[in-house]
Structures are given as structure tokens and as C-alpha cells.
Amino acid sequence: MLVKNLSHTIPLITGSDSYKGPIYPTPIQLREVKQSHIQFMIKNDIIEPVSSNPSKST
Predict the structure, then answer these.
(1) CA distances for 20 relative to 5, 16, 26, 39, 46, angstroms
(2) CB under 8 Å to 38, separation ≥6 — which residues?
(3) How do residues 28-53 score in pLDDT, each as one tens digit?
(4) Which residues contact 51 (CB under 8 A, 6 or more apart)?
(5) Would you put residue 49 in left (φ > 0), alpha (ψ -120 to 50) or beta?
(6) How does DSSP classify residue 42?
(7) Which SUPFAM superfamilies match (predicted)?
(8) Are 41 and 48 within 8 A, CB to CB?
(9) Tell me: the pLDDT tens digits for 1-13?
């Protein structure tokens, strides 16, 4: 039987602490991750930046 090492951490609970459930990222942290991911994709030519004020071609 194969057991894989999982990369998550389990919070340690001491006598004075109470378990408050999993810690979720805040919206600001999610926005930072999203922005860094977008910058990575633009830098590596995965996506192209879109102009916020595109000129109309006729």
C-alpha cells in the first residue's frame, strides 16, 4: 500500500486554544494571488494584456 505525503498542515491544539476551523484566505490575499498569476501569464506570453480603452477599428 502506498501512502503519499500530503502537503497540508494540521493545526496543533493546546489546552488553552480552541479550534476555530480552517483558515481561509482573505479577499485581499485572493486578489493579490490573482494579480500575480495574471502578471505571470502576461510575462510568459500565455495571455496578452487587453487595453482598457480600445480604439475602434473601422
Answers:
(1) 25, 13, 16, 34, 39
(2) 47
(3) 888 988 999 989 988 988 888 787 76
(4) none
(5) beta
(6) H
(7) DNA/RNA polymerases (SSF56672)
(8) no
(9) 555 665 566 666 6
